[in-house]
Design goal:
The protein is an alpha/beta fold and about 425 residues long. It has 15 helices and 13 strands. It is globular, with a radius of gyration of 22 Å.
């Protein structure tokens, strides 16, 4: 990300990019608008083509080979605005003698499955970027490494933080989009509102999707925001989005909303865990809903700091059933970004676990390639009791050595291990 003085602040994903780019000819950085793709790619590029610039795009559309001219690495920014650029790079990579570190592509929208493009498999490797983690924001200095938790040695945990509940609430509102850091109050809200407006006014049309009723799309987005950190069905979201607005639209009307928002990386659902090496039965399969940044959820629902922190959950519209408070759900969203970024750095996958009847659930499952896991619960609490760890203990009993470690991420002050071996980690102290 770029600071206000124009300096680049390193990201967790930098190490992954540099390791891959040292051996591969082409990388594609993908993620929602404003997560910092262009800044990160520009740090490495010597030639830059910005395809969101109408002038540059028109010239290159007339003569695509221009994209291959210039000193490498060559950055093709917002490549999806000229989809032919993907195949152009792919063919260039296929040519003998194309050296590692030749091309970087950034994209804020995934192509449609029927776009007729070659996948690029084996030629262009994709790296996902998400908003800033708490560590990247400089909230605190981490003392607990997720990579160390995944090594199976159950490291000793320690560290103390002064970050408290109100600080986490402020970070939810402040957004992890690098360009919005430093803004506060009305300017920040205006930028987030503009981001949401752009989705319907520009991003959907650029995908070739006409929005006849922008208000209906915004209501659907608000319903999705209200369902953050839940597994509410899409029928539930549709019902919530259309409550009080007459006849409910057919699934065929709503499905393009969801598909387009996934292509734009605006919705970032956590998939249900599908174990590869154990015998757990009757697991539920719906994804857990998350927006790319919980700050967008707060704007869609019209809640600020006071509403988040009040003792009773604020009334929000549309209403979607969930356990716990809205602040608890959005705190889990904030933590989920961190865990996903750190897991990606460790070459691990993130999912969630819920049994079919709902009697057991674990918020986040971080899985290594060998199928062994780190189990993570997220609690909007400063202290942890036996009730808070019951699902983690159940899972350890069922899976034995396949559970590398188990932790509860909290809003507390101290990192430590309980007598039963389960780690307690304040969110601000978790790092890569």
């Amino acid at each position: 990300m770029s600071s206000g003085l124009g300096r680049y602040t390193p990201r967790i994903v930098d190490d992954e990019i540099d390791e891959l780019f040292g051996s591969l000819a082409a990388l594609s950085l993908q993620g929602a608008k404003a997560v910092g793709k262009t800044a990160t790619a520009s740090e490495r590029a010597r030639t830059v083509y910005r395809l969101d610039d109408d002038g540059q795009r028109s010239v290159i559309a007339a003569d695509g080979e221009r994209l291959l001219e210039g000193e490498t690495p060559i950055l093709i920014d917002e490549w999806q605005r000229l989809p032919a650029s993907w195949d152009l790079v792919r063919r260039a990579v296929d040519k003998p003698g194309t050296p590692p570190g030749s091309f970087l592509l950034t994209g804020s929208a995934a192509p449609a499955s029927d776009a007729g493009m070659h996948s690029g498999a084996g030629r262009i490797v994709t790296v996902r970027m998400r908003p800033l983690t708490l560590a990247e924001r400089g909230v605190a200095s981490p003392t607990v490494s997720l990579a160390a938790l995944l090594n199976g040695r159950r490291p000793q945990l320690g560290g103390e933080t002064a970050v408290r509940l109100v600080d986490y609430a402020n970070e939810i509102l402040a957004s992890g989009f690098p360009g919005l850091r430093g803004l506060s109050d009305r300017p920040l809200r205006a930028q987030l509102d503009g981001y949401i407006d752009r989705i319907t006014e520009r991003d959907f049309p650029e995908l070739g999707i006409a929005i006849r009723n922008p208000a209906a799309l915004r209501r659907w987005l608000a319903a999705y925001a209200a369902a953050s950190s839940t597994t509410a069905s899409y029928e539930t979201l549709r019902d919530a989005a259309t409550a009080g607005h007459g006849e409910k639209p057919a699934r065929a009307t709503v499905r393009p909303y969801r598909d387009a928002l996934e292509r734009l990386w605006i919705v970032d659902p956590v998939p249900a865990w599908a174990p590869t090496r154990n015998h757990l039965r009757r697991l539920s399969s719906p994804p857990k809903h998350q927006l790319v940044d919980p700050a967008l959820a707060t704007r869609l629902l019209g809640v600020g700091l006071g509403a988040l922190l009040q003792q009773e959950d604020p009334p929000v519209a549309p209403a979607v059933p969930r356990d716990g408070t809205l602040l608890g759900a959005l705190f889990e969203s904030l933590v989920t970004i961190d865990v996903r970024v750190y897991a990606q750095a460790a070459e691990a996958r993130v999912s969630h676990l819920r049994t079919a009847a709902g009697e057991h659930e674990v918020d986040l499952i971080v899985e290594r390639d060998d199928g062994r896991i780190l189990a993570v619960e997220v609690k909007l609490r400063t202290t942890v009791d036996d009730h808070d760890v019951r699902h983690l203990l159940w899972l350890s009993k069922r899976l034995g050595r396949d559970v590398l470690d188990s932790i509860v991420i909290t809003t507390g002050a101290y990192a430590y291990r309980r007598s039963d071996g389960i780690g307690v980690v304040p969110a601000a102290l978790l790092g890569a």
